[in-house]
Design brief:
The protein is of the alpha+beta class and 99 residues long. It folds into 2 domains: 41 residues, no CATH class; 54 residues. It has 2 helices and 2 strands, in the order αββα. Strands 1-2 form a two-stranded antiparallel ribbon.
């Protein structure tokens, strides 16, 4: 049951991050335009399929390193969570075999 809650929490955090990103993409150019009379838009995102992160971005080159770091962090987190789920499932199967 804990794995279900962890998965649900990760999905909820993902939706909150996506909502915050869209909100920032909309508000940042408006605020910049008001203060400097210029607008520069940039953004990025990562999609994880199994343990492979696919990151994308647009805008100035300032976003390249944060996206690379985000991809590495997401890949490591996904591998750790996958390993923990694997270990938990093996332990559960062992307990079921004893019964």
């Amino acid at each position: 049951m804990k794995v279900f809650h962890i998965g649900l929490l990760l999905i909820l955090i993902g939706f909150i991050m996506a909502f915050a990103t869209v909100l920032l993409l909309v508000l940042t150019p408006i605020l910049q335009q008001l203060s400097q009379n210029t607008a520069v838009v940039g953004g990025g995102g990562c999609v994880i399929i199994f343990f492979i992160p696919i990151c994308f971005g647009f805008g100035p080159q300032v976003f390249i390193w944060p996206l690379i770091i985000a991809a590495l962090v997401l890949a490591i987190a996904t591998m750790v969570i996958g390993y923990l789920i694997y270990r938990w499932s093996v332990k559960t199967v062992e307990e079921l075999k004893r019964v």
